[in-house]
């Protein structure tokens, strides 16, 4: 990290969303760098499939790009992004007619949906 980067205060997610909504691609890229692992991990937990999780994580960021202007900052950005991710995965399951299985605390699989 360059010395001037260390001196620059880190922008909040809300500030980045506002700038990204105005077309600032650097701000969108920063949001991606901060949150892509979290989104991928959630997709992987929900699907249990690496390839589907990669595809869905990409779809989530496409949706984020389209909808970033609708984030109002009333909740944490991570909460909003989590909901966007869950909705994207659930929509994927509905389209495919796939049953979502959820693992219980004792490791048993139970069907939901």
Keywords:
single chain; mainly alpha; Rna Polymerase Sigma Factor, Chain: A; two-stranded antiparallel ribbon; elongated
Question: What features would you describe in this structure?
Answer:
This protein is mostly helical and 113 residues long. It has helices at 3-7, 13-21, 25-47, 50-67, 77-96; strands spanning 100-103, 109-112. The chain has a single domain, classed as RNA polymerase sigma factor, region 2, helix turn helix motif (Rna Polymerase Sigma Factor, Chain: A, Orthogonal Bundle), CATH 1.10.1740.10. It has a two-stranded antiparallel sheet. The chain is elongated, with a radius of gyration of 16 Å.
In short:
This protein is mainly alpha-helical and 113 residues long. The chain has 5 helices and 2 strands, in the order αααααββ.
Alpha-beta classification? mainly alpha
Largest sheet: 2 strands, antiparallel
Write down the secondary-structure element order.
HHHHHEE
Q: In the CATH hierarchy, what is the superfamily? A: RNA polymerase sigma factor, region 2, helix turn helix motif
Number of strands: 2
Contiguous uncertain segments of 5+ residues? 1-5
Mean pLDDT: 86
CATH topology: Rna Polymerase Sigma Factor, Chain: A
Apparent shape: elongated
Radius of gyration: 16 Å
Total DSSP helices: 5
CATH architecture: Orthogonal Bundle
Query: What fraction, in percent, of the residue positions are helical?
Result: 55-70%
CATH class: Mainly Alpha
The tally of domains stands at 1
Separation of termini?
47 Å
Strand order of the largest sheet: 1-2
Strand content: 5-15%
């Amino acid at each position: 990290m360059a010395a001037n980067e260390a001196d620059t205060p880190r922008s909040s997610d809300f500030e980045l969303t506002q700038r990204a909504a105005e077309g600032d691609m650097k701000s969108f890229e920063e949001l991606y760098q901060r949150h892509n692992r979290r989104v991928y991990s959630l997709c992987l937990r929900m699907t249990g499939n690496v390839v589907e999780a990669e595809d869905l994580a990409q779809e989530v960021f496409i949706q984020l790009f389209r909808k970033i202007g609708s984030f109002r900052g009333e909740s944490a950005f991570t909460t909003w992004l989590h909901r966007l991710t869950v909705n994207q995965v659930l929509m994927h399951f509905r389209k495919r007619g796939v049953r979502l299985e959820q693992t219980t605390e004792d490791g048993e699989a139970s069907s939901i949906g």
